[in-house]
Design a protein that fits this description.
Radius of gyration: 30 Å
Distance between the termini: 60 Å
Helix content: 10-25%
Structural class: mainly beta
CATH architecture of the largest domain: Sandwich
Shape: globular
CATH topology of the largest domain: Immunoglobulin-like
Oligomer: single chain
Largest sheet: 8 strands, mixed
Strand order of the largest sheet: 7-6-10-3-2-12-15-14
Number of helices: 9
Number of strands: 38
CATH class of the largest domain: Mainly Beta
């Protein structure tokens, strides 16, 4: 299946395909015929719900109260619940932006739940006061509703208007969802004052893709200033000004839902979407204002922003005093000290943010901050120690992949630090984690590339450099004639594996580190010891040892004992069941898993069948399993290597064949005879 891209820039160059469209429903009314759930259940036998229509209009007005231009976004949506699994679609949220300089306003909210009761349609109205606000971080919030009386067969309708002075937040539009949609439509009326980059990405062509131009008149305040996250005061004369506006209509019809398959980073990265980024504004008789015309303009804007560049400058006074507490001259030790100091003094409040919300003094006094506040302070402290350090903007996995390589300010929602030591590769740092360690990032931020924003350095940074997860498992066990296993295990995590496991550890109880083992085998565990360590070559390492007993693990059939060939490291199933896949397979990290077993047999036992060596390779994926009869027992070793994170969709079939081979090579058994 092809991926369709097209870009609209400044003039919004589009081919014209003029097709009229009629919305597929009348809002606020549902007839008995429209409530025919069996029709949709038959049409979509495996779907929990279906979106009948989702339609939005976005236009630009001049707000006489705020004396600013604003966009007005109107949306109305109807969906039907088809099965019990779809009841969660009765929860609905409207995201909105709020900063010190104002907030987006949700107006004219109306929502209904229609249910068929006999031969009558009964309607429940939901009012705005029934919603509650939830903080999403990065200056974003949402108004959340849990609609009442939602059941299988319900039709849910929502309509609202959102008014925003924050033109950088012009709403992108998602045509596709994880459930089918019959009609998705976005209409945009764009005045020529504003230049946006608009980019469509999806696995389908739009059914309607048209544009036309007309002359509009705006009441216009000459001293308008519009920015990312903040606005300045206005004044002066107002004018009536005429300008051409371009009207765009985009429609997609009868789209299947796109399901999240195993090993997907963020399904929203692949749903058909039209994305917008404010590039610049150009008003008559005024010089243009640039935001993302180039990366240099983007950097200039963010470094002058009070919640990024100014925050970093103001942090210097605080961190210079902190730096006096350091007594290390070694530069690597300075990095470790700075990371530990910021981590211990400021607790992460779970808010992933690209911008600070408080002053550096306030953050230190509170002992709590968002990701930008914490890691910008870390950059400042590293600089106060005489080190070369920079802030790096990033987008978390949950926030989604960057839509393109084009300059952007709106897609970032996180900040980390980079430090450059002479003769070494740059180190990435994040002081928000449970156990911060120089050179490693938490899983939530391993998401493609970030961007250094600095006056001298403005460049991409690979966030996926140091993500080798190494785990070795060693088992020494004794099997008795009843199929019981008693033994000792030693797990050793190294590199990113050790860093990741340290984030899961607590001082109270680390039994959960063996949950997978105990759930798989029913093992009884005791004497768990966990030892974090730094190896001599600066390799991060965590070792776990424990004793265990597994009652009746092996199958005893008369005078034979039968066990899986790879014991409890057996991988029986291939999780990749689809014949084709539209989007890539994305693993959380590169991985090397190895294990070794020594199984001591009962004195009256002999080996009837032991598998031969199993091996296979495809690209950067490989595995090998060895089985050896030794005096008094059996030795088994295995290695599985996944040395790349991503398998592209065009490689999926070959990759799936390899994974089938892996499952086949896990399917053999060991047979032991009892004398």
């Amino acid at each position: 299946m092809k991926t369709v891209f097209f870009t609209l820039l400044f003039v919004f160059s589009l081919y014209s395909n003029v097709i009229g469209s009629t919305p597929p429903f009348e809002f606020g009314r549902a007839s008995q015929e429209e409530m025919d759930v069996e029709y949709f259940r038959n049409k979509y036998p495996d779907e929990p719900a279906v979106i009948i229509g989702d339609i939005a209009d976005c236009k630009f007005n001049f707000n006489n109260e705020s004396r600013r231009f604003q966009f007005v976004f109107e949306r109305h949506m109807r969906l039907m619940i088809l099965r019990e699994e779809g009841l969660s679609y009765g929860d609905f949220s409207i995201p909105f932006y709020e900063s010190e300089s104002g907030k987006e306003n949700i107006r004219r909210f109306r929502a209904y739940v229609h249910n068929l009761d006999g031969d009558r349609v009964r309607t429940t109205r939901i009012r705005p006061r029934e919603g509650f606000e939830n903080d999403l971080g990065n200056n974003w919030k949402e108004l959340v509703f849990a609609f009442p009386n939602v059941r299988v067969g319900s039709i849910i309708e929502v309509r609202y208007e959102l008014n925003s002075d924050f033109l950088f937040n012009m709403r992108s539009w998602r045509f596709q969802h994880q459930i089918p949609i019959l009609h998705s439509e976005y209409n945009v009326n764009m005045p020529s004052f504003f230049n946006y980059l608009a980019r469509f990405k999806g696995f389908f062509d739009l059914d309607v893709n048209e544009q036309r131009s007309s002359l509009q008149t705006f009441r216009y305040e000459r001293q308008v200033s519009i920015g990312y996250g903040s606005q300045t005061g206005t004044g002066g004369q107002t004018y009536n000004i005429s300008a051409y506006s371009t009207h765009f209509k985009w429609i997609a019809r009868k789209l299947d839902g796109m399901k999240r398959e195993p090993y997907t980073d963020n399904i929203n990265n692949y749903l058909g979407t039209m994305f917008f980024e404010l590039i610049s504004e150009e008003f008559p008789d005024q010089p243009p204002v640039h935001y993302t015309t180039s990366w240099e303009y983007a950097a200039n804007y963010i470094l002058n922003h009070k919640d990024f560049g100014e925050y970093l400058q103001n942090a210097a006074a605080v961190t210079r005093a902190l730096a006096l507490e350091n007594d290390n001259n070694d530069k690597r030790k300075k990095v470790e000290w700075a990371l530990k100091t910021i981590h211990e003094k400021i607790r992460w409040n779970r808010n992933a943010s690209f911008l600070a919300g408080n002053t550096p003094d306030r953050v230190l006094a509170d002992g709590s901050g968002n990701s930008a506040e914490i890691n910008l302070l870390l950059v400042s402290l590293l600089r106060s120690l005489g080190l070369e350090a920079y802030p790096v903007a990033a987008s978390t996995v949950r926030n989604g992949a960057l839509f393109s390589d084009a300059p952007t300010l709106s897609q970032w929602n996180y900040v980390i630090a980079q430090v450059r030591l002479p003769g070494e590769e740059p180190l990435l740092l994040d002081a928000t984690t449970v156990f911060p360690y120089a050179g490693y990032l938490p899983q939530r931020i391993i998401n493609g590339r970030g961007r250094v924003f600095d006056r001298q350095v403005n460049e991409w940074v690979n966030l996926e450099n140091n993500i080798s997860y190494n785990l070795h498992k060693a088992y020494e066990m004794e099997l008795d004639s009843n199929g019981n296993l008693n033994g000792t295990l030693v797990y050793t995590w190294k590199d990113f594996g050790a860093y990741s496991i340290l984030q899961e550890m607590s001082t109270a109880d680390n039994d959960h580190l063996l949950d997978e083992f105990t759930n798989e085998t029913g093992a009884r565990i005791n004497d768990i010891i966990v030892e974090p360590a730094i190896a001599d070559n600066d390799t991060l390492m965590v070792t776990l040892t424990a004793n265990f007993r597994i009652p009746a693990y092996a199958q005893v059939l008369g005078d034979e004992i039968i066990m899986p060939g790879l014991l409890f490291e057996t991988r029986r199933d291939n999780p990749f069941t689809l014949e084709e896949r539209l989007y890539p397979v994305v693993f959380p990290y590169n991985a090397t898993y190895s294990y070794s077993f020594f199984l001591k047999l009962p004195e009256n036992a002999s080996i009837d069948y032991l598998p031969r060596q199993k091996t296979a390779r495809w690209g950067r994926f490989s595995h090998q399993f060895n089985f050896l009869e030794e005096e008094g027992g059996i030795s088994i070793t295995g290695v599985i290597e996944n040395l790349t994170r991503t398998v592209n969709a065009n490689q999926y079939r070959n990759f799936r064949n390899y994974m089938n081979r892996l499952a086949e090579n896990n399917s053999d058994h060991i047979i032991i005879s009892l004398q």
